[in-house]
Amino acid sequence: HNDGCRTHTGLHGLSHGSYDELWGVKTQELCRTACAQRPDCHAYEYAQISAYTRCELHKDMPTMTLPMPGYYCYKKNVPKLAGQPLQHSMREPPPPPPLP
Question: Which domains does the chain carry?
Fold first, then answer.
């Protein structure tokens, strides 16, 4: 998958969300391990940018991904889906269910 993590922030807004950036992390496995060791990490994005590598440790769960060659977005600790890529989606998330 070649997708970057994005967080829905409003009617038309997309952002990276809140995250910490680590440069020079050599592999996706090391990025995954860094996320696993932090309770505030809900997802990680690993990117190969030219000759550099970057690991983003996301404090907000990304709600969608955007196609970006060389970028990989993964969820953390989702039962049966841990380490699985987020699905690409540009659609508005559904509204919350009505209160009883």
Answer: 3-75 (3.50.4)
Instruction: Look up the pTM and report it.
Output: 0.68
Across 10-28, average pLDDT: 76
**Eight-class DSSP state of 11:** S
For the four alpha carbons of 26, 27, 29 and 32, in that order, the dihedral sign comes to positive
93 beta partners? none
Strands laid side by side in the 3-8 sheet: 14-15, 3-8, 64-67
Q: Cβ(70)–Cβ(47) under 8 Å?
A: yes
- Residue 89's pLDDT is 40
> Are the CB atoms for 28 and 46 separated by under 8 Å?
yes
Both structure tokens of 51: 């000759």
DSSP at 90 = -
* Cα 51 from Cα 33, distance rounded (Å): 22
